[in-house]
Every structure is written in C-alpha cells, then in structure tokens.
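Batch job 17 of 40 flagged for manual review because the log was empty.
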Amino acid sequence: MRLKAYAAQTHQGPYLQVNEDGYDFDFENELFMIFDGFGGSGLGDRTVEKLKQEIKTFYTQISDDPNATMPLYYNPRNLLEGNAILNSMMSAHQNLLKTNLEKPVNQRAGASAIVAVKADSLLVLVGVGNCSAYHFRQGKLSKIIVEDTFQNLSKDQFESRFRTSPMNALGMYPEMGHQLREVRLAEGDKIVLLTDGVYAQVNEDELLYTLNKASPDANERVNSLLKLSNSRGNTDNQTAVILEF
C-alpha cells in the first residue's frame, strides 16, 4: 500500500506571533509526525524542532539495524516499527525532561505529538498529549488517537483553550503516557492528524464532510479545515496533515 497523496499545513493562527506547532515527514522511512509545542516564544518552537531531529535520528538508527535492541521499551505484541517509534519518542522525552528539570519552571518547554510509520500495509501511530488522529474509509470516520486533555477529566464548560490543555506531553512528567494504535490500510483510506488549533473548533461531522467532498486535492481539504477553525474564533496555533492511500 503506497502513499498516493498528502497535504500538511502549520500556522501560528490569526492572533499569535509565534508558531509552536509543527510537522515533519521522512519519506524514505515512511515516517510522519505532528507536534503541538508549549513554553512560549523561543522555547516551544525550538523544542519542537529539536524533537523532530531527535526522533528521526533515533528511529533511523534502530530501523536500519536488524540486530538493534530496544534500549528503553519492548513489547512483543508490537511491530518492530511500533517498538522503534516508542523508543525514539521515549529517548527524546527523557532528554527533554532532564533539560527541563535543570531550568526554572518559566523556562521549561514540552510538546504533544503523534508519530506514525508505515510498514507495508500497516500504519502504526503513537500519540502523546493533545493531538488527535482519524481514519477515513468508504465514507466513514473513526478516531484512532484520542487527545489526552483536561476535557476528558472534567465535565465543566471551560473555554476550549483550557479544555484542550494536555494531560501529558513529551518532557512534561517522568512517565511518558502514550497511546499506540495499528491500522491496516486499504485502497482509498485517508489518515488525518490534527492539533487542538483545528479539532477544538471543527467537529467530526464537518471533518467527515471535508473528506467526503470532491475537493481538487488534499491541499484544498487541509486549507478548508484551517479556514473553518479560524472562522470559529480559533486563538491557537494550528496544524493539519492528511495522508491519502
């Protein structure tokens, strides 16, 4: 199963001056990532760039060596690629946590993330924090990575920017809470990765409509999601990725 088309866009949003979101692809290793950083200007944005490089480098070292061991985590039920992603993210998490503990609280940074890798016809996704992922197939939409936010802890009606604050993140707590999911891909599938600057303002029916409509290409779908979020009063950074198989 090959990737036929993709689109990605990240933006600081209509009100913020710095973008702490980000995405990155490694097509040779079929690795796809989105991030939602925090910490402020010069902290969250730089942390996201560092996490991108650390995760890609660590993953490439493991995936290129058939005799490599998993130094931080191993689960025999997971694919090699899933274990490799988790080790890569855990290594980056531990490095960032160590750096944060050496700084005062107001100088610390972190990031939510989803990292996905394709292995033949399987897509393995690992999510940490307040990013979400959806699987679209034959006109139906299902959530595969559920955002780990305060919204799932409380029923109070906070403003969306408080409800989507992460309960966990890279560099945040000693234990890296995560979700791992595997999706067996089929012809025509679409995978959508979103930060809270998009999903907090766009509901699942609207996302499904965007994926179903006969848009010219994946870029137009991504653009329409960001525009819709901004029209609803989005005050956050925003990132959306669509992978079409």
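Reviewer: the log was empty due to a logging misconfiguration, but the result itself is present. The beta strands are 5-11, 21-26, 31-38, 110-119, 122-128, 132-137, 140-145, 179-184, 190-194, 238-244. Unflagging and moving on to job 18.
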